[in-house]
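Try it yourself: sequence plus nicotinamide-adenine-dinucleotide, in.
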Amino acid sequence: MHGETVLHEAFPLLTSKTALVTGSTSGIGLAIASALAGSGANVMLNGFGDASEIETIRKNLERAHGIRAGYNGADLTKPEQIDELIDACFETFDGIDILINNAGIQHTAAIEDFPPEKWDAILALNLSAAFHTIHRAVPHMRERGWGRIINTASVHGLVASKEKAAYVAAKHGLIGLSKVVALETAGAGITCNAICPGWTLSELIQPQIDARAEAFGGDIEAGGRDLLKEKQPSQQFVTTDQIGALVVFLCSEAAAQITGVALPIDGGWTAQ
Ligand code: NAD
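Structure, out:
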């Protein structure tokens, strides 16, 4: 049947593709790496954490999905380590077809109290690291005539919240960078998009939930509900698996003409 064929072709396996997922030792990045591995892609993991736990994650991905998984612990606030990470992708996998710029950190403080060193670190990781990886990966994608670049921005790339000067500035910048790369690569088989999650349960937002829980006698669930109530109309957290599935879709042929967008996955946050 024609419809079935289109559907089948719209979601091809990503077998023979290689994905670099930055910040993939936990949270959203780990779910994206798992979803891509589940679609047949080899993955290069990156991020911080306990060495034996990361090795377990790496081996489990290989066993569960019959793919090859590597790990490189580059600190992406340091451009020379980004270069080493990209070199490692070329040495281990012969390239990068799918680049997911996902590593990110947060710090909350009013502008007059915001530590300059936190500003520098957040801009370096949440924005500049994506420039450095894209700068290295695009020539290779052009040679192959195929590539997918997906930058994990945030609803905070589209709208602001108080006490997040560096994060909001970096995420808005990341969306701008995504649009420029989309224009420069349009028609070359390469797409570049930003995804914009709302509240998603992970280590990154745990301090904000903990802070709110204090008002409810330390009740963490009440703290989480309070966080959602303020911004996210669905009153439900986005799940990391939902974000992984969105990324797989953006890597599919069905999404070949989706480029330069900043796509919210936010339970209605930015519709308000
Ligand atoms: P997380 O803390 O679980 O994951 C962050 C990842 O980045 C980890 O793997 C960590 O080891 C890695 N990392 C931290 N510093 C690094 C460095 N200097 N070099 C290399 N890797 C580093 O948090 P998460 O929520 O999964 O965040 C992933 C991305 O999603 C971030 O860019 C974040 O801004 C974005 N995001 C999160 C939410 C949310 O509600 N959790 C919402 C919108 C966007």
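One thing you can check immediately is this: The two ends are 41 Å apart (CA to CA).
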